[in-house]
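Re-run with default settings, no changes from the original entry. Doing this only to confirm the output is reproducible before filing.
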Amino acid sequence: MFVLRDLVLPALFVFLPVGPATADEAGELACGGIAKQSGLLVCTGPSDIKIDIAAPDGSAARTVATDADGRVFIGLMQDEASALILTPQQESIEPVKVDVAAREDDYRVIRGLDCDKVDARTDAQKAHAADSWVKKQDAFASFNDGPGATLGFIKPAAGPTSSPFGPTRKYIGVGADGTECESTSVHRGYDMAVPTGTLITAPAGGTVILGDPDLYYEGGAVFLDHGGGLVSVFMHMSRVDVEAGDVVETGEPLGLSGNTGRTTGPHLHWAVKWRNTASDDRGGDFYIDPALLLELDG
């Protein structure tokens, strides 16, 4: 019979260093990281075991798996439940309860945009957006092993925060004929106010899975796979200096910031997507808060 252990991480930003499971830890699941909505848990235990995750009422259910080193990254959704039960699919390992801290996000209205910046309207724009979507989906389906994410993250550009992760944005634009258009979305990245031409560097080591100078919404963009399912996405770049297959270390250059794609001015949009390495269904993947990852201490 299992006894449920509570894992209560202190509020906000905490990282409990964890590594590959040792012989003494082989029968135990241990987790650290950032137990906050849009944060990241870093857990270790026996290698190649599946772990069922759900809220106490059974909602928010998903299954993850440790890798060959016994490690797994577990992304937390923006509206994650206040508590999660992690139940290994191995009877000898006790379940663990994780209390998840809440976050506060706001609602913003952005007016005065050109409607072409709000959404694809013409046939040519729609074709460009569709082609870009295919490129992005193909990139997100590619997985690479790598230790980069365990080493901690650094800011990819030197500049102040201009927009945090999380707020809901309603864009209201005006077309050439004077009619209004609008679109509502959640800001899934961390924006830094930097002028065009600012150097962008890798926040952690990884493998480039997409380097494209002209995606419809993102403009010039780089997708960097850190391993463990984590992918950094850099948008609106004026110059892309890497291509798919390149392996980069923390701090190495990726290109220059810009004002390309759907933007309201020059800046760097840095997003991080958590992908479930135990699932072939990419529909269950989601973005987490890059600013929280800067608090990880490798």
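The longest helix spans residues 123-140. Residues 1-25 have pLDDT under 50 and may be disordered.
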